Amino acid sequence: SGGLKTRYKDEDGTVLYESYVPPSRDSIHLPTYVIYLLFAVFIVVSVLYAIIGHLIKDLIHDFADWLL
User: Fold this and answer.
1) Could you give the CA distance from residue 7 to residue 17 in angstroms, rounded to a whole number?
2) Distance (Å, rounded) from C-alpha 58 to C-alpha 30?
3) Which of 1, 11, 27, 54 is deepest in the core (most CB within 10 A)?
4) How does pLDDT run along the chain (68 residues), one tens digit per residue?
């Protein structure tokens, strides 16, 4: 379509907008430190889940052995 060629003039003839193209919303632009922070939180949560999940599974097995 080539963009919308619209022109809005104020009372004194000043052009306010000409060929306005809105910014693309294809991607989310985050600051770099936010991306690194999210990545670090994901790694920490994954490691903690692996360690604690393994310990809880061992505890459940020990409790089942104690009951049986």
Assistant:
1) 6
2) 41
3) 54
4) 455 555 556 666 666 666 667 777 767 777 889 999 999 999 999 999 999 998 999 999 999 999 88
